């Protein structure tokens, strides 16, 4: 009998996505199924999800799920076995997944995602017609109460795991939500869900899950220190023997330049002519000058302080003075969006920006850029640089988290040894970023050297095969915990 795992996530690509969590929640189960693991994925019944899954089967009903009725629905789509919590009073609303159209968090987020975790626990305890899983795998704070509900159930339970995708988002709520969430009074304790006088969803998962993972080895070490621990470093140090860092992968079928319908022509390491066509198409799409000799630096990112995009604005004049071009796709902080709009207006033909998210344009930027820039101040793993490697657009990154784990700096020794795959900035500041761009430009000016760097980047293993094996070993270790 194969191992049964219930994966619990607030977003899953390709059904609904705001960030990398959705990519992981969509790709990891498929990689695990190739190893014989039976994975079901539980997610909320947002309107977009119900619209994308017209053929849903009801498998369970709850008369009162935190203020209204709910149904558990099942479907098979996009290679995934999906379970959808249909609770209209919690999810049937216009706006974002976590906030309304004005950007304010939904005031009932504690109940919205508490319900997701509660249903995960019901499935894990065998209180639905579905087979009981041996492992419940919670992703980020939105699923963080699943290990808590299972811990306090007072019954034989499955093993539990929680994965931190970004420790900065923790799901902190007032203490008054404890009773509406159906948690027992004894749960409000430092050894339970209590966190600085309130209820901490992520903290609860980190304290009560059998295993903790995060999405790169370096980030696993960083978050045990106060500088990156976001107030949870003490707990993470206390549970260090339960904490593992496993690098994310990407779906190498979706991200494959040799068979990508979003590119004007296919290419691979042995024949890169299609990449030059992608560059031309990208320049046309974003209104950049059609100059094959201009170094195009691509950015596909949330526009935020974390991602270091303010540093890019500082060094942008330096890039443009050297004849470089910027191709940017992103959305986020209004001040950063406005600043990049001004930059595009001030430098037509050299700066091209698109705001929001466009999957096709994201592929074109990866395929058509000469380098992809990821100047993050902290980065749990990062998927952008993995796609960049796959598409022969060597990443320019900072030495943090998963960026440090996945990009080999093109210093003299690494280039001589033939192992360099990108550029790693010396520090996280504008001067170091400008120096990194200069080093990239020096390599770009040498066509033979640039072609070698592209090919080495494309040879990097970025699939889910290795990470899935690591998750399987952890699942096997915790299955059947009671």
UniProtKB/TrEMBL annotation:
Keywords: Glycogen biosynthesis, Glycosyltransferase, Transferase. ADP-alpha-D-glucose binds at residue 17. Pathway: Glycan biosynthesis; glycogen biosynthesis. Residues 293-440 form the Glycosyl transferase family domain. SUPFAM superfamilies: UDP-Glycosyltransferase/glycogen phosphorylase. Synthesizes alpha-1,4-glucan chains using ADP-glucose. Belongs to the glycosyltransferase 1 family. Bacterial/plant glycogen synthase subfamily. This is Glycogen synthase. The lineage of its organism: Bacteria, Pseudomonadati, Pseudomonadota, Alphaproteobacteria, Hyphomicrobiales.
